[in-house]
Structure prediction request, 453 residues.
Amino acid sequence: MFLSIATTHKPATDLGFLLHKHPDRVHVTEVAFGKAYVFYPEASEARCEAALVLDVDPVGLVRGKGQSSGPLDQYVNDRPYAASSFLSVGLARAFRTAMNGVSKERPELAEHGLPLAATVSPLPARGGESLVRALFEPMGWTVEIVPVEGSRYVTLKLSGTARLSALLNHLYVLIPVLDDDKHYWVGEDEVEKLLAHGEGWLATHPAKELIAQRYLKHRRALANAALAQLAPETAEEPEAPEARETSEDALEKPIRLNDARLDTVVEVLRDSGAQTVADLGCGEGKLLQRLVRERWARTLFGVDVASRDLERAARRLHLHDVTGPREGRVTLLHGSLTYRDKRLAGVDAAALVEVIEHLDAGRLPALAHNVFGEMKPKTVVVTTPNAEYNALFPNLPAGALRHPDHRFEWTRAEFAGWARAIEAQYGYTASFRDIGTFDAAHGAPTQMAVFTR
Prediction:
């Protein structure tokens, strides 16, 4: 994959001072997936061009990670050779100081706009030419798109006058947005990266919602957290949580599935004898709201990765009002379910209500280790959609998921297989229950596993 940046500023060789890379040398930077090379195809007073080329080791990418499918399909593919998050990582490693807008030798030049031209090839353009233009043209770039014959890739050429740091940050964010994928796990730290590299332009970009969604691999909670921080002073106060409805809510409302699900979870937790309960992935606090009414629930924790949802949960539970629960009975925690949290040590029970389907399948082992291997509550309640029942929703297209943020939806056999693996690895015993109206052919809309030890 190839990126070039050129200028006709006089003298054009000042580009070397801004990039912190001397034009007379080939610069090599080690990255986790290979090497990044920076060199200058042209370096004259009239025009200077710097090229960044990544040499990705496709075999090294998967060495030691197993081969769940065919022996060759992990190696024989085009991702290591196309502009993607690999290029963004290489860009950040090779031009880190330039991206920060700093130049010791030419500080005044780093602060001013220069005539710049950039070429990226081959670049995936998932969304077509119109999306490429919608991403770059609002920032003042003139866009030229050259299709790569016989492929889904394009060569992207940008030209305009801007600070070099602005160009580098635009490319860093928008290349993986156009690819609509990343080669690594996306967590909360990616929100911070997006906000840092989007500073000064993303908050006013007309496609900021799409950018946030794609940059964060369609993890809705992370995208919402990023958007809330981009312009919190202009964000509209959300409706009361009870009034907000998702596509999943709309599907399930006619059968009052959410009420049945929460009532069943509360019943199971009550029967378990638990006194301390952690609602993992608590969202806006609907389960916690029910548990607060239960006298046996002495101490409650709610954990979620989305700070905005936690704020809504706090309002729902009246945590800051004199009419709310006594101090210390309910604690809301901002955190990831795939990492150990010492604050949850010793809880009697944990609930994951419609949570696991929002995680990439590759992260489920980390979640299982955290919950069943580290936290080790005596009771764990897990609910998830039954994919077989989707055929009975009249407005759900065949093969579609109930919610756009779902990464998967399991059949009853798939869910049971996952539960049996938990039993074998962590010493729990699982029992299963159906929630909602049962259909002889398709089962119930929600499936539940209750793990005990």
Summary: Residues 64-78, 232-245 have pLDDT under 50 and may be disordered.
